[in-house]
Amino acid sequence: MDRIDLDAFGTLVERPDASMRRDSQDRWRDLVRPAAGLGKPAELADWLAAVQGQVPARPITRPRALVFAADHGVSALGVSARPAGTASALARAVVDGTAPVAVLARLYGASIRLVDMALDCDPAELPAEATAHRVRRGSGRVDVEDALTLEEADQAFRAGVAIADEEADSGTDLVLLGDLSVGGTTVAGILIAALCGTDASVVTGRGSGIDDLTWMRKCAAIRDGLRRARPVLGDQLALLAAVGGADFAAITGFLLQAAVRKLPVVLDGVVSAACALVAQRIAFRAPDWWVAGVATGEAGQDKALDRVSLEPLLDRGVSTGGGAGSVLALPLLQAAAALSAELRPETPERSEAEPTPDVTA
């Protein structure tokens, strides 16, 4: 099978409708005083109008929390507060409805979908629909070997594209992106440092809540990964194979195809920010279809979002991952859409000098 044509996305991804954004901006002058009085919700309504291609924006009626899950071989180096290969426990909590993202999705009326791309567990431990796109069990230890083969990276990327098509075809009108992994923030750090040309120490965060010694091991692992990443910076699929993982490849493919299908996406933490950075290298217009949910306090996320020109909607320091941060942004987007759809121009007050109509005539 031939490799997927990444260059095609540069042509297929269009910008959101700028005329709809301008019409939405102009409309606020007739709806509120002052015109900028609604602040961020009005700006989000303008973005929704552009991505939906209509003014006023439609209400958000079918939001979906989409959580990609995997284990990463680099976690064997002791770079996380969680034991290596235990992301399946986090995934089961999503299925059971006890994970933070599941609780918040219920609260705000979003459905939830778990996608196992490379969890290190027996697939029978999870529902069949969750494991349908699994590429492999875990990934290679990126300090000494590639995370995936090129064929596996291609398969995972295509899975992300297919999932975007499935969501768009099913009527999902907003995706709240999430990820679950052990070792994922280390992989994200490698990708962000490589693509931004920075040192490992600049992007190494505390992830799952690690201590100083673990932070030093994580920083060293990112430096080792950078040596593998730099030779393949010009080939995004090879980069995802060398130092990414099946979840990173799938999320990147998903983000690009969602932009092709004009399906808006809310990013979560540093993992989705890293994938957004890779996707931007493939199709520079794609970030116009995304917003960033919550600032996590991870330096790598800040670096990546700055590079793709996105600013988090909320600053709550939510760093649990799993999509909790993106779902927390849903009420703000729902409010923006509702205000755009339901507000009507103010009725001018009647002048005191104007006679009252004789309703009895």
In terms of DSSP E residues, the strand content is 5-15%
Radius of gyration using CA atoms only:
22 Å
The oligomeric state of the chains shown is single chain
Structural classification: alpha/beta
Distance between the termini: 82 Å
What's the number of structural domains?
Answer: 2
Can you tell me the CATH superfamily of the largest domain?
A: Nicotinate-nucleotide-dimethylbenzimidazole phosphoribosyltransferase (CobT), large domain
CATH architecture of the largest domain: 3-Layer(aba) Sandwich
Total number of strands: 5
Query: What form results from the Cα inertia axes?
Result: globular
**What's the level 1 CATH class of the largest domain?**
Alpha Beta
Structure description:
The chain has helices at 7-12, 18-31, 39-52, 87-96, 100-108, 128-131, 150-170, 184-196, 200-203, 212-229, 236-243, 246-260, 270-282, 299-307, 324-328, 330-342; strands at 63-71, 111-118, 174-182, 265-267, 290-292. With 361 residues, it is α/β, with parallel strands linked by helices. It folds into two domains: 16-52, no CATH class; 63-330, Nicotinate-nucleotide-dimethylbenzimidazole phosphoribosyltransferase (CobT), large domain (Rossmann fold, 3-Layer(aba) Sandwich), CATH 3.40.50. The chain starts with 6 loop residues before the first helix and ends in a 19-residue tail after the last helix. The mean pLDDT is 93.
